[in-house]
């Protein structure tokens, strides 16, 4: 985000505060803003946010801005203008952090970053609710490495490793970098890592993976991991389109909400495992964290981290819902 966007945000929010009478409202409302609100993970997170707020006597508003920074600016502005007491935001651009946190602070509105960390103007982090990116990537990479060893591919097979990356997002780099380290530690060659850039959606992963497969015609087997389940799903679809069968793919998802669908349907899939992340739990924690600070005046905790669990076709139904 450049200075013009930051200036626009502050100007927009300042106008909203004035028009709302300094954002004073009688209702107890908190707002969650999500960068990809149509993804199942964020739908679940919004449900958890709403349920926790209602349990604690608040109302909650969920705003989907997809990957549009301008929509995120409007959402922050609208939340402040409506008199929201707290905002949780998964920003479409981490560079928005200084501007949105300053705007919220000037309006006296508490803010937490969900999923993707953002920074304040002074370089300190905005209080965070979500998962530890490096820890998640480590778990994904460990499982992928174990499956690679068990497959026997290290003993002469022509294999490659698709690291599907949102290269502009630090939390995603934390995940895929950690996964790469673990797969290499399991015995994969560093030269086998092939980097694929996408924007967090299955469609862009599919589109980006296809040409990579075409440019690596000598590879018979693929290990796949990504920043999220959508990245793995898109790569899986590209591999299927290129003629690779389920036995030619070891894909480990991150989220599990896409991975579990073929498992539930009994359809052979490249998804061999996934790290289950409960969006519901993150939404619940974000709402409770905000409301506790609103009600008590206590500072927001700097970091609230949710738990994760590796699942596969044998145990996912005991751990998670699958729609």
UniProtKB/TrEMBL annotation:
Gene Ontology BP terms: L-arabinose transmembrane transport
Keyword Signal carried by entry: yes
Keywords: Signal
One GO CC term, this protein: outer membrane-bounded periplasmic space
GO MF assignments: carbohydrate binding
Subcellular location: Periplasm
Major subcellular site: periplasm
Signal sequence range: 1-25
Lineage top rank: taxon: Bacteria
Domain Periplasmic binding protein: 32-266
Pfam families reported for this sequence: Peripla_BP_4
InterPro entries recorded: AraF (IPR026266), Bact_Solute-Bind_Prot2 (IPR050555), Peripla_BP_I (IPR028082), SBP_2_dom (IPR025997)
Family the UniProt entry places it in: Belongs to the bacterial solute-binding protein 2 family.
Protein's name in the database: L-arabinose transport system substrate-binding protein
